Amino acid sequence: MAVETKNKTFKNYINGSWSESLSGNVQKSINPANYDDVVGYVQMSTKEEVDQAVAAAKEAQKAWRKLAGSERGAYLYKAADILEKRLDEVAEAMTREMGKTLPEAKGETARGVAILRYYAGEGMRKVGDVIPSTDSKALMFTSRVPLGVVGVITPWNFPVAIPIWKMAPALIYGNSVVLKPAQETAVTAAKVIECFEEAGFPAGVVNFVTGSGSVIGPAITDNPDVSGITFTGSNGVGKGIGQAALSRGAKYQLEMGGKNPVIVAADADLDLAVEATISGAFRSTGQKCTATSRVIIEASVYETFKEKLVEKTKEITVGNGLQDGIWMGPSASEGQLNTVLSYIEKGKEEGARLLFGGNRLTGAEYDKGFYVEPTIFDNVTSDMTIAQEEIFGPVIALIQVNSMEDALALANDVQYGLSASIFTTNISNMLSFIEDMEAGLVRINAESAGVELQAPFGGMKQSSSHSREQGEAAKEFFTSIKTVFVK
Ligand SMILES: NC(=O)C1=CN([C@@H]2O[C@H](COP(=O)(O)OP(=O)(O)OC[C@H]3O[C@@H](n4cnc5c(N)ncnc54)[C@H](O)[C@@H]3O)[C@@H](O)[C@H]2O)C=CC1
Ligand SMILES: O=C(O)CCC(=O)C(=O)O
């Protein structure tokens, strides 16, 4: 256990130093597997500290943007090496702070390292095109310039990967950043920032302010010196950020919820579909925006799929993610657990049949944690709340259909469009799904969760602001194109 983090207060990182908030208030960050375990204390900062961070970022960005891309890349490579060295410690802090199992936390931290290296290399790649001018004596080309100061507002479900997949591209293209992490996982995020500090980034290029979303969030989004805001989190908060940014002409990027379907066709490899459904729905306790929450199954294989799914779900071991042999950890917070339990109640009230799970786990090893059973509902119809709203917990809704046309229509019958999977061996089913599924990420014979850092990621409909993150797509958000005409 990472004793050295116990009872430590993690400060703000502003203009190259760790500083105390004027508020003097701190908040306990607790382990959702055992609320007596205090992971650390984080500050409840004020608008003044955000203003200081933005001012420092604005000043530092002037010199940062003048560096060669390869020089900025060298800092990112260093941060990657340091994070890699601290992988076990950072992953353990993540498991203690938000509950995902240690192997998952290690995987996420390794992903953070890989993202840093990917964007470090981006500093050596092209940023523009030569475009033939109609004037034969002129040279016309495009270049890209950074936005300036970027505000980064992140959730608790991927406390390492999400801040890094937003900060790394922002930095490599010459922006400076102010990170506001989710308060629930601010200790883990502070450890990521320590890696940036140790890598020697110039003072003010990377800043970090903790505090409540309703104070620190608007202080970032309303600051006229913040030119771009990148956000992942809930739809309500995301929409508010988008409106605030638009009203003052700032650029914004929002990644929000999902209600991701898996379609199981009659010709599917059912064992593969079961395995992927369980992994997609229950890994990270269902707390991924790409998590599987609806499974739409053709009638002829419905009963067999259901039986296999329940049998496999029975094998899931729930408990403290730091322990060996645990497959699923707790919900990340008491609030999140209560949200999940209230959706389960709603499912029962609206007439879905509870097939498996559905309860808060109790007993010696569970009483001090926020544990819920992996849960499967049968007889779900598309109009039910559990088939429409993002639950962000380990809850699956099974829906039976008579044809692939009906399956696709139901898969699209939600406000979200983030990720979707189909299990089939029939090429025409695959092609219709690729063509007609309204989602930013469609996967064939693979689980709905799973994002590759070098590929664009983002959703359709209410899942995003229609922009894409990661891979080369990040360049579109974190830079502006400049068209240059020389004669
Ligand atoms: N798309 C995703 O990956 C995520 C989706 N969610 C969804 O959101 C639900 C609620 O989770 P929360 O942690 O409450 O999400 P949230 O949207 O409130 O939090 C995300 C981030 O936004 C910040 N924030 C909160 N209020 C703000 C404001 N007024 N202005 C600017 N920033 C603000 C938070 O402090 C945090 O850093 C979950 O149950 C889940 O359905 C939550 C986390 C991630
Ligand atoms: O599935 C993933 O790895 C990414 C999920 C994600 O972006 C999120 O939950 O916010």
UniProtKB/TrEMBL annotation:
Pfam families: Aldedh. Keywords: Oxidoreductase. It comes from the Bacteria. This is Alpha-ketoglutaric semialdehyde dehydrogenase GucD. Gene3D superfamilies: Aldehyde Dehydrogenase, Chain A, domain 1, Aldehyde Dehydrogenase, Chain A, domain 2. Belongs to the aldehyde dehydrogenase family. Its EC number is 1.2.1.26. The keyword Oxidoreductase applies. It is an enzyme of class 1 (oxidoreductase). The active site is at 255. It comes from Metabacillus endolithicus.
